[in-house]
Structure of NmrA family protein:
Amino acid sequence: MTEQPILVTGGTGKSGSRVVSQLRQRGISVRVGSRSGTPPFDWTDRATWDRALDGVEKVYLVPLDGELLTRPFVDRCVALGVRRLVLLSGRGVDVPGYLPDDSPAGRTHVDGDDAVRSSSLEWTVLRPGWFAQNFSEGFFRDAVLTGELRLPAGEGAASFVDAEDIAAVAVESLTGEGHTRRVYELSGPRALTLTEATATIAAATGRPLRYVPVSREDFVAELLEQGWPKADAEDYADAISPIPRDLDSYISPGVREALGREPRDFTDFVKAATEAGAWQP
């Protein structure tokens, strides 16, 4: 094991947990940045930041959506001797109108992306599109289990990227050479409509599943009926809005640029998730 651990913030999340796993498979010491970690790390408690960064030279940084905390955290990284930082940013940071100017998540990524790229660190920025794992671990899983995915995405398509590929690019950027001051745009190898994506899952699992396009207004109203706060419901609708505007269908070369191979196809993700029991009730 290396003497100096790599700090992985969001170390129990979709990409962070995979970064932790892949680093450990290489025999690299990892410090899991989470409230339950040792030492604990809490984005909302700045008193935990310095202890989590103590003795660390490399960081995988997963920002806290809706908060402008990346910039002050980067400042602490610089002050405490961190040398290399890999940021999980987001698709559309450099696309005018991708998200509304007042989008909390959008502000997090725009400000954080700028903070990292303007720092003195050896930095790499990852800008992935929609995670394929949103169907198996995230936003869409509950809907998949009910058999009906209702979203204001129209007939738009997205080039869903596997979180395993995101993690692999992050690990290579943390441990390899030639990735400093690189921005990797990450996507899967092809774009799928929500109709195609749900049909792929239904075929693999044998579970009935269909995508139902709804208007933004109806979508927000349905979330409010489920008890969502209005601001959160509108933020969710905003996050979906690039898909019907055809801003998420393009194919990005980042996986190939960083790893020298093609990204994993959505069908392969679905097969693996099904075999792992991701959609068992």
About this structure: Residues 104-117 form the longest helix (14 residues). The chain has one domain: 6-275. The chain has a mean pLDDT of 96. The CA atoms of residues 86 and 170 lie 7 Å apart.
